[in-house]
From TrEMBL, chain A:
<dbReference type="GO" id="GO:0005634">
    <property type="term" value="C:nucleus"/>
</dbReference>
<dbReference type="GO" id="GO:0000785">
    <property type="term" value="C:chromatin"/>
</dbReference>
<dbReference type="InterPro" id="IPR038704">
    <property type="entry name" value="YEAST_sf"/>
</dbReference>
<keyword id="KW-0539">Nucleus</keyword>
<keyword id="KW-0175">Coiled coil</keyword>
<dbReference type="InterPro" id="IPR005033">
    <property type="entry name" value="YEATS"/>
</dbReference>
<feature type="coiled-coil region">
    <location>
        <begin position="196"/>
        <end position="223"/>
    </location>
</feature>
<protein>
    <recommendedName>
        <fullName>Protein AF-9 homolog</fullName>
    </recommendedName>
</protein>
<feature type="domain" description="YEATS">
    <location>
        <begin position="7"/>
        <end position="161"/>
    </location>
</feature>
From TrEMBL, chain B:
<dbReference type="GO" id="GO:0035267">
    <property type="term" value="C:NuA4 histone acetyltransferase complex"/>
</dbReference>
<comment type="function">
    <text>Component of the SWR1 complex which mediates the ATP-dependent exchange of histone H2A for the H2A variant HZT1 leading to transcriptional regulation of selected genes by chromatin remodeling. Component of the NuA4 histone acetyltransferase complex which is involved in transcriptional activation of selected genes principally by acetylation of nucleosomal histone H4 and H2A. The NuA4 complex is also involved in DNA repair.</text>
</comment>
<dbReference type="Pfam" id="PF16282">
    <property type="entry name" value="SANT_DAMP1_like"/>
</dbReference>
<dbReference type="InterPro" id="IPR027109">
    <property type="entry name" value="Swc4/Dmap1"/>
</dbReference>
<feature type="compositionally biased region" description="Polar residues">
    <location>
        <begin position="63"/>
        <end position="72"/>
    </location>
</feature>
<dbReference type="GO" id="GO:0003714">
    <property type="term" value="F:transcription corepressor activity"/>
</dbReference>
<feature type="region of interest" description="Disordered">
    <location>
        <begin position="153"/>
        <end position="249"/>
    </location>
</feature>
<keyword id="KW-0539">Nucleus</keyword>
<feature type="domain" description="DAMP1 SANT/Myb-like">
    <location>
        <begin position="252"/>
        <end position="310"/>
    </location>
</feature>
Length: 223, 589
């Protein structure tokens, strides 16, 4: 076993990524002669690191997007960034985004290929997102690729640059539904805290009731 | 060479009558042989018949000239008699604009019309000089004042000297004879000192000036002396009377010598006032015309002090003027002139040296400023992250180097900010108060992760010495001495003894430790979440909107508390059921 693929125990290292799709209604002028008549939307499915200047090519050999079987050549393989596929269509379906890491023991990455499922969205699905006049839909999800017990090589690649420095501001005001920023995390934490507090109050409430009932039971038995 | 010449050479004929009227207009001045403005003649020649459409010369100029030529009529001037000033009996003639008749009329209409330049004939208001008697009293007053002042001053000086001498005497032999000898020597020394003082003294007066007058002055002084002497003597009890007297005599002699500056005869001073009047206080001229070899400052001094006296006797005296006159200080004036002279007499080499010194000084200043700036920056750096950490870990030399490394990282972060600031004036910001005392206080030096990685590295070296390149990445990371925040930036996390399955996962798909429950429990948790309107990934899959390590663990916390709540609720429900059962058994209902 090469020293490259030795794993560093007890640590994990993560890379924030964005994946999802943009979709826009097809206007007559956008249609190409080859576009089928029943296709109503043009969409792009993609996978990318959150930060633009992070290069994952040392890790990732290629990314494949498995489209619906009705598409011609449904498995699209993208070898270089940007990892994205643009198509037209009329229906929503689940796309399997598969990350292929560089194989080979000597390269030292030694990770299994990894799948992410993304439900293609063509129609507005979240009432909180701003409605756009041109019918643009963005279904973009934040997630983190977590390398548990990374190999030395992976560790080396991922520590070349701090890749978790999320921005604190949106790059533009109307990209609210397309970007994730650091305050979002804080907001979510605060929101969860509110829920936790609610639950704690409820726990206290239940416990008191339980105690009362217990006393009532004891008094009942003794009487 | 003109354009026509060029056309000749090129054998091109041109009809000169052809040009349009416009062009002719501008070309007329050249035809008349008048020089054209706004353009060099040679250049204009090259333009030739191809005159540009814009008019090069200013039309104003041309039209003016034409007008002048056409309408010029000389105005009449006439030679007229006049008297410069009213009190002079000279008849002079000058040319006046206007016809003779007109001028005569004017003259008749207002005879009193003053000569135009008369208003520039002004006289300085210099106080009238006084008679001899008054002058003598003034001079004597000056002398007395001066004597008294100098006497007290010198006496104090002498006293100091004597005291020093006495100390010396005590140290030296105490025999009387020798003492006397000493005294003689001392006296000699004092003479020398006196000479020195005289040289240094504010009033360097030419002593050879008007010997006989000095004699006279001395005669006058002697009459004043006795009144001064007795008042001084009792103030020196330590020194014997004889000594005292001789000392005083010496001082007086000295002072007398310096009284030379008051050697101004009445005639001389009168002459001075006269010259001042004539030359309107233009001191260099006055100095030039004054017959004796006084310096300008001497002249000024004499003039000013007499003026002060005179003005003070006036009824409605101008105090401001007197004060300003009194402010004149000859020694200072001399000093000032000396400085100026030195400044002017500097050689180029000296000037160069001075300049280089100034530049050097400025450089030092800048360097000092920069240093202050850097220092304060460093101190702010040190001051910002105050932790309650124990300082003991920085007391070893390794701890110090750790501190240094950490600071370097901070420095990098702050460089950008500094670059911004340094574009502006490099004013060192105020040094934070607590900074100096907080050098040792700093942040956590080794997070758990770093400690773990360091030990990991060590282990790797022990077990497999071949690993070097790979270990480097860890080493590099370690050398960066990351802080907790920076670790987050790298997405690094140390899990301790937690069990990890190697491989890649998505954060959102990581199994929450809290979700390790029976299916039924999970279902009710799901129901609770839905009730709370908490965003979920659907089904029994829970994930935050933005799944980061923090949100995931928070989510887990929420999940656990919900589970706890459900447990209690279930127990409570069970209890309720039991109570019901007991009640029904006892037939209470």
């Amino acid at each position: 076993m090469s020293s490259n693929s030795r794993r560093i125990k007890f640590i994990s290292i993560s890379v924030p990524i964005l994946y999802g799709n943009h979709a826009i209604k097809l206007t007559p002028d956008k249609r190409k002669p080859t576009t089928p008549q029943d296709h109503t939307h043009e969409w792009t499915v993609f996978l990318k690191p959150v930060l633009g200047d992070i290069d994952l090519t040392p890790l990732i050999k290629k990314v494949t997007f498995k489209l619906h079987e009705t598409y011609e050549n449904p498995i699209r393989s993208i070898e270089t960034p940007p990892y994205q596929v643009t198509e037209t269509g009329w229906g929503e379906f689940e796309i399997i985004i598969k990350i292929h890491f560089h194989p080979g023991v000597d390269l030292g990455i030694n990770e299994k290929n990894f799948q992410i499922f993304h439900g293609l969205k063509l129609h507005p699905y979240n009432p909180q997102h701003p409605k756009r006049e041109n019918g643009e839909v963005h279904s973009i999800l934040y997630d983190e690729l977590v390398f548990n017990e990374p190999t030395d090589k992976v560790f080396e690649i991922l520590t070349r640059k701090p890749c978790n420095l999320l921005p604190f501001k949106l790059s533009s005001e109307n990209k609210r539904d397309q970007e994730y920023i650091r305050p979002d995390e804080t907001d979510e934490l605060n929101r969860l805290d509110v829920y936790i507090d609610k639950i704690k109050v409820e726990i206290e409430n239940q416990r008191n009731q339980y105690k009362e009932l217990e006393e009532a039971k004891i008094s009942l038995i003794n009487s | 060479m003109s354009a026509n010449d060029i056309l000749d050479v090129l054998n091109i004929s041109r009809d000169d009558n052809q040009p349009a009227k416009k062009k002719q207009k501008t070309s007329t001045p050249t035809d008349n042989g008048k020089p054209l403005t706004g353009m060099a003649r040679e250049l204009y020649n090259l333009v030739g018949p191809n005159t540009p459409p814009i008019n090069l010369s200013s039309s104003n100029y041309i039209s003016n000239k034409g007008k002048q030529n056409r309408q010029f009529r000389p105005s009449p001037w006439s030679k007229v008699n006049f008297t410069p000033g009213k009190h002079r009996n000279i008849q002079l003639k000058h040319w006046v604009k206007g016809s003779e008749e007109l001028l005569k009329q004017e003259n008749e209409s207002d005879e009193k019309k003053e000569y135009f330049f008369e208003k520039f004939n002004i006289k300085l208001d210099i106080p009238e000089f006084i008679d001899e008697e008054k002058y003598e009293t003034y001079m004597n007053e000056f002398k007395d004042d001066f004597r008294e002042e100098q006497f007290t001053k010198r006496k104090a000086e002498r006293m100091r000297q004597l005291e020093e001498q006495k100390k010396q005497k005590k140290i030296e032999e105490k025999k009387e004879e020798e003492k006397r000898l000493e005294e003689k020597k001392e006296a000699e020394k004092q003479e020398e000192v006196k000479q020195d003082i005289k040289k240094e003294g504010e009033t360097k007066q030419e002593e050879n000036f008007l010997e006989e007058k000095k004699e006279e002055q001395k005669m006058g002084e002697k009459s004043v002396e006795p009144s001064v002497e007795p008042s001084k003597e009792p103030s020196e009890p330590v020194i014997t009377e004889e000594e005292q007297r001789s000392e005083d005599e010496k001082i007086k002699e000295e002072v007398k010598k310096e009284l030379v500056q008051f050697d101004w005869s009445y005639q001389e001073t009168k002459e001075l006032f006269n010259l001042c009047q004539i030359y309107e206080l233009k001191w260099p001229t006055i100095h030039d015309r004054f017959p004796s070899n006084h310096r300008v400052e001497d002249l000024k001094e004499q003039f000013y002090r007499i003026c002060v006296k005179i003005l003070e006797t006036e009824e409605n005296k101008n105090q401001n003027l007197i004060d300003s006159l009194k402010a004149f200080s000859k020694p200072r004036e001399l000093e000032r002139k000396q400085y100026l002279e030195n400044l002017l007499k500097r050689t180029p080499a000296e000037i160069a040296e001075e300049e280089s010194l100034v530049i050097e000084a400025r450089r030092f200043e800048l360097a000092a400023k920069k240093m202050l700036l850097e220092r304060s920056n460093l101190l702010t750096l040190l001051d910002s992250p105050q932790s309650t950490q124990n300082v003991s870990q920085y007391q070893s030399s390794q701890g110090i180097s750790n501190l240094y490394n950490n600071l370097m990282i901070y420095d990098k972060h702050q460089k950008k900010k500094q670059a911004h600031q340094q574009k502006q004036e490099p004013i060192p910001p105020p040094i934070p108060l607590a900074a100096s005392s907080s050098i040792r206080r700093d942040k956590v030096f080794q997070t758990n992760l770093q400690q773990y990685l360091a030990s990991f590295l060590k282990q790797a070296h022990h077990t497999n010495p071949a690993i070097k390149q790979e270990a480097n990445s860890i080493q590099q990371l370690l050398s960066k001495r990351l802080t907790q925040k920076e670790e987050e930036a790298y997405g690094l996390h140390y899990h301790g003894t937690e069990k990890l399955t190697p491989g890649v996962t998505l954060r959102s798909q990581q199994k929450l430790p809290g979700s390790n429950q029976r299916q039924s429990v999970l279902k009710s948790v799901s129901a609770v979440f839905q009730e709370m309107d908490l965003p979920t990934a659907g089904g029994t899959m829970w994930k935050p909107v933005m799944p980061t390590r923090k949100t995931m663990s928070k989510y887990d916390e929420l999940l656990r508390s919900v589970v706890t709540m459900l447990d209690i609720k279930r127990a409570k429900d069970k209890l309720e059921a039991e109570i019901k059962l007991i009640k029904s058994q006892k037939g209470m209902q």
